[in-house]
Every structure is written in C-alpha cells, then in structure tokens.
Amino acid sequence: MDYILQGFSIFLGVIAGTAVTILTQRFLLWREETQKIANLKFEIQFNIKQIDRWMEYLIGYRNAVNGDAINSWAEYFDFSHIIKSTIENMIQSGLIYKKLSSEHVGYLLIFISSFTQGFEIVFNQTITSQRQTFNKQKAILEISTFEKKLKDSKKNLETVLKSLP
What we know:
The chain is mostly helical. The protein has one domain. The chain has six helices and no strands. It has helices spanning 2-66, 85-93, 95-99, 102-114, 117-132, 136-163. Helix 1 packs across helix 2 (85-93), helix 1 (2-66) packs antiparallel against helix 6 (136-163) and helix 4 (102-114) runs antiparallel to helix 6.
C-alpha cells in the first residue's frame, strides 16, 4: 500500500510541477505581450508628435511659398526618424494580427512604408529643386498633397491608438 501512495504522490508532484511550469510560461507570455502593447502605444504617440512637427514645418514652408521667400525657409523633413521597431517586431511575431483588426494593421503598414529614408530624400530634394527653379503653383500642389498625406496618417494612427487595449 505504501508503494501505491508513493507512486500517487510522485504522480501528483509531476502534475503540479507541469502545471506550475505552464502557468509561469503563460504569465511570462502575457507580460511580454502587455509590454509590447505599451511600447506600441508609445511608438504611435511619438509618431503622431512627429507628424505634428512636420505639419508645423509644412505651415512654415507654405508661408514661405506664399510670400515668395522660399530661399529663407530652412527646415528639413526627417521622415526616417519615425519609430517602428515594435511595429515590425509585432508583425514578425504575428502578435499584431492577434491584437488589431486587419484595417488597423493596414494603417500601420501604410504608415511605416510611407515615411522612409527614401521618401525623406525625395521630398527634401523637391524643396531644394523649388529653391533653384521656383514654381509657385507646383509648390502649392506639392504642399496640399503632402498635407493630406500627413493628416490621413495622423488620423489613422489615432484610430489605431484608440483601438488598443
């Protein structure tokens, strides 16, 4: 009878150890996911602030264009300074698809693919080109197009931010 009790005790010990291991792993995974969501919120808030800063630059650029003083305007649109490491990590791990709708994932993908170092170079070269051969109508059209892009990006990021737990 003692052998049966010992065997049963060992069996219960193994079950308890397995349960503790599984619960610990689930807790650590939950904590990691919670931290990634907090990081994602921070990144989105930071990027919204970046968009606000670029909007201010754009207002200054518009004023310089309208005042025919484009050569006196000297800001640089640093689009490659967006933060996207958590977004990319969550895409690679698949966590983003678990936490956001496909529409919201699409907003984030469009944002990170739109504001790149390549776009930064092209946009700033466009401004430099305007300084050399000023075309007011073309500059106003470029400003309007870019302003819409910034406003849409900000609205989309705010929508994603509101949807996060």
